[in-house]
Amino acid sequence: WALIDGAIDPAPDEWGKTTDEERLESGFGNWPGVVEEVKPPTSVLKLYGGAAFERVMHEFRCATHSIQCPTVSREK
Fold first, then answer.
1. Which of helix, strand or coil describes residue 3?
2. Could you report how far apart the first and last alpha carbons of the chain are, in Å?
3. Phi, psi at 17, each rounded to 5°
4. Where is 56: in which H helix or E strand?
5. Could you state, in order of their start, the residue ranges of all structural domains in the chain?
6. Under a CB-based contact definition with an 8 Å cutoff, are residues 40 and 55 in contact?
7. How far apart are CA 12 and CA 6, in angstroms?
8. Which domain of life is it from (predicted)?
């Protein structure tokens, strides 16, 4: 109820989610096209709000940098 009642600092242990919990609820599991596991340093912390957004953006950057794209010739 802390979030609904407008508390300034709701408990992260109660409202936050770890990376694995977020993935489980999303239904996707791993990033599409990424074979290596992407785990941000804060993956075990229960985060919510802006901190959770920053974590998933960091994870997205790591995932996109690990995808190998095909080489494109100059003719294409």
1. helix
2. 57
3. -135, 145
4. helix 49-66
5. 11-66
6. yes
7. 15
8. Eukaryota
Question: Exposed, middle or buried: residue 74 (CB in 10 Å: 0-12, 13-18, 19+)?
Answer: exposed
Token code pair at residue 35: 């074979």
- The residue behind tokens 């974590």 is 55
Asked if residue 67 lies in contact with residue 43, where contact means CB atoms within 8 angstroms, the answer is no
Report how far residue 2's alpha carbon sits from residue 8's, in angstroms, rounded to the nearest whole number. Answer: 8
Predicted confidence (pLDDT) per residue in 55-73, tens digit:
999 999 988 888 887 888 8
| Residues 6/39, Cβ–Cβ less than 8 Å | no
- Identify whether the C-beta of residue 38 lies closer than 8 Å to the C-beta of residue 20: no
Q: Is the dihedral of CA 55, 49, 13, 25 positive or negative?
A: negative
Per the listing, tokens 């990033």 go with: 31
- Percent of the chain scored above 90 by pLDDT? 28
